[in-house]
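PROTEIN DESIGN WORKSHEET
SECTION A - STRUCTURE
LENGTH: 251
TOKENS:
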């Protein structure tokens, strides 16, 4: 097959042009045909430049961050997030309600409410550089704080929190496929279908911001179903949020 190229002032034969055009039609490539035609004239492949630019644009807009990368960013992110937790089955209903998580490395705080005997009690758990503390109080009752060094967090009973911790601490043990992008609590969320590791959930849907903030978790574990969805998000947390509301009592 002849190769069409202009040499000096030599005219390009019409037969050469026809051959090039037939070649383009047969291949049915998604190229810039006009650029290909110019290539028949001056010997340059203008279409390849067009393909490279298109591929680069598609890559930049179509590729989403890996869940592994988002979970890595979560370890360093500063945030205050209020979640609505809905749980059912195996007694998990007691964990339903609103929770607020504060995180500003190395400080963290978790607020949640529970109702016993018709009385609502608010509990805050502080993890600070100088120790761990519980602070609690009910309606009309003064707030008290206890130093609880070596005692686990109350969130150990919250499967939604435990699952988030497992994902962040051992992300390589989970499989994940990107599914969609949605808006949650005013934040752009990247959502993934996640396959659980042994001893955790089997499958679930987890959505994160690009900085690793957990915005939505939906999964089942040990016969209970859990949904944790962010309702309010702040990416700045003042140091005053980690000040104990009362002098701690040592055990």
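SECTION B - SEQUENCE
RESIDUE ASSIGNMENT:
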């Amino acid at each position: 097959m002849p190769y069409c190229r202009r040499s000096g002032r030599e005219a390009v034969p019409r037969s050469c042009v026809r051959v090039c055009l037939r070649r383009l039609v047969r291949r049915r490539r998604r190229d810039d045909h006009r650029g290909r035609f110019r290539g028949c004239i001056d010997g340059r492949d203008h279409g390849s430049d067009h393909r490279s630019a298109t591929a680069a644009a598609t890559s930049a807009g179509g590729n989403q961050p890996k869940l592994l990368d988002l979970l890595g960013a979560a370890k360093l992110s500063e945030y205050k997030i209020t979640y609505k937790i809905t749980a059912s089955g195996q007694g998990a209903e007691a964990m339903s309600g609103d929770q607020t998580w504060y995180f500003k490395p190395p400080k963290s705080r978790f607020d949640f409410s529970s109702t016993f005997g018709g009385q609502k009690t608010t509990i805050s758990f502080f993890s600070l550089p100088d120790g761990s503390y519980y602070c609690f109080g009910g309606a009309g009752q003064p707030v008290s704080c206890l130093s609880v060094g070596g005692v686990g967090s109350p969130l150990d009973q919250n499967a939604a929190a435990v699952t988030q911790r497992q994902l962040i601490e051992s992300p390589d043990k989970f499989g994940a496929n990107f599914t969609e992008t949605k808006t949650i609590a005013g934040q752009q969320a990247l959502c993934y279908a996640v396959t659980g590791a042994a001893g955790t959930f089997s499958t679930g849907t987890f959505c994160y911001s690009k900085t690793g903030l957990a915005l939505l978790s939906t999964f089942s574990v040990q016969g209970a179903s859990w949904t944790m969805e962010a309702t309010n998000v702040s990416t700045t947390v003042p140091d005053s949020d980690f000040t104990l509301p009362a002098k701690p009592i040592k055990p």
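SECTION C - NOTES
The two ends are 91 Å apart (CA to CA).
The chain has two domains: 14-62, 67-249.
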